[in-house]
Amino acid sequence: MPGITVNNKIGSGRSGYMLVSPYIIFFALFVAYPLIFSFVLVFHHWSIVGPMEFVGLGNFAEMFSDSVYWKSIINTLVFLLIHVPLQVVSALVLAEILNRKIPARAFFRAAFFLPVVVSGVAVTVMWKQLFSTDIGILNQMLGMIGINRVPWITDPAWAMPSIAIMATWKNIGLYVVLFLAGLQSVPRQLYEAAEIDGANTVQKFLFITVPAINPVLVMVLILSTLGGFSLFIEPYVLTGGGPMNSTLSGVLYIYRQAFSFFRMGYAAAIGFTLALIVLTVVMLQRKYVEQEI
After folding, report:
1. HSE of 22, CA atoms in CB hemisphere, 13 A
2. 244 phi-psi bin (left φ>0, alpha ψ -120 to 50, beta other)
3. pTM attached to this predicted model
4. How large is the average pLDDT for residues 75-86?
5. b/e string for 53-79 if b means 16 or more Cβ within 10 A?
6. Residue 150 is part of which domain span?
7. Within a domain: 47
8. How far apart are CA 273 and CA 286, in angstroms?
9. pLDDT for position 15
10. Average pLDDT estimate for 125-138
C-alpha cells in the first residue's frame, strides 16, 4: 500500500538519524564547538576568569614579534629534522629484518611494539634516569670505555637530539608494524624475477621494495611528522623546555601561554599558525615524496 510505504520510509529515516545522533553530538561538543570557540579566541584577550576583550589582529602582531615563539618553532623543526628521518629509516630497517625468518621473530615483533602502549610519562621518566649526567646508565657505559660524560639534557646542543632519540625509541614499534604490513603485501614473484636477472639485495630493496610500499612510506612519513609537531610530553617532563628554551616546542609554548599565563587568546593564535605550518609541511611531503618514489 502507498501509505505503508511512506510510513516505512519515514520510520527508516528516523532510525537512521537516531543511529548517527551519538556521533553528531560527539562531533558538535568535542570538535565543532572547540574549533569555533578557539577561532573566536584568536581575536580576543581572555584570562578565563575575566571577560573577553576584542583585540582584532593584536595577538598575531604580538606573536610575530615574539622571539620565544620563533624559538619554539625552530626547536620543533630541528626536532623533526632529526626525528623523522631517524624514525622512518630505523623502522623500515627493523621491519625488513623482522620480515625475514629469524629466531624468536614473534617475540621481537612484540618487544618493539611494547613501548608504544606504555605511558609516555613513564617512558620519559625512565629516559630521564638514563640521561642523567652523574648517575645515568648511558654515561656510566661511556665511562667504562673511556669516553667523557655527555650532558644529554643539560646542554642546549645535546638536549633536543636526546629527546629525538627517546621519541624515536618510544614510537618506532608502531611504524615497524605498518612497514611489516606493507612488506608482506609485496609479491614474492617480483624478488624471484629480480634474482634471475642478477639483482643484488640493495637493488631489490631500492627498485622493488621501496616503490611497492610507497603508500605505506608516505603514511609513515606523515604520521611521524604529525607526531613530531605535537611534541609535548617529552620536553615537559624531561627538561621543562630548557635548558635556555632549547627544547621548548610549539605545543609546549601554547600550554605555557594558556595554563601558566592564562593568555587563552594568544595561545589560540599560536595554535592556528602552528596548524597552518603543519598543513603546509604535510602537503609538501605528499607532493614531493609521492612523485619521487
Report:
1. 1
2. left
3. 0.86
4. 94
5. eebeebbbeebeeeeebebbbebbebb
6. 66-292
7. no
8. 20
9. 75
10. 87
Beta-carbon count within 10 A of 48 CB: 9
Alpha helices (runs of H) in 205-259, residue ranges in sequence order: 210-212, 214-229, 233-238, 250-255
- Within 8 A by CB and 6+ apart from 94, the residues are 112, 172, 176, 179
Residues 274 and 220 in one domain: yes
Residue 264 located in a structural domain = yes
Residues of the chain above pLDDT 70, percent: 94
What's the rounded Cα separation, in Å, for the pair 224 and 43?
Answer: 32
**Residue labelled with grid coordinates 612523485:** 291
The whole-number average pLDDT for the span 184-210 is: 84
In degrees, rounded to 5, the angle at the alpha carbon of residue 156 between the alpha carbons of residues 151 and 157 is: 80
Q: Which residue has the higher pLDDT, 286 or 260?
A: 260
Looking at the structure, do residues 114 and 32 belong to the same domain, yes or no? no
- Within a domain: residue 153? yes
Instruction: Decide: 104 and 159 in contact? Cβ < 8 Å.
Output: no
E strand or H helix at 3, and its extent? helix 2-27
DSSP state letters, 27-44: HIIIIIHHHHHHHHHTTE
10 Å CB burial of residue 160 (0-12, 13-18, 19+) is buried
10 pLDDT above the threshold of 70 = no
DSSP one-letter code for 147: P
**Model pLDDT for residues 15-48, shown as the tens digit of each residue:** 777 888 888 899 898 889 988 998 899 999 998 8
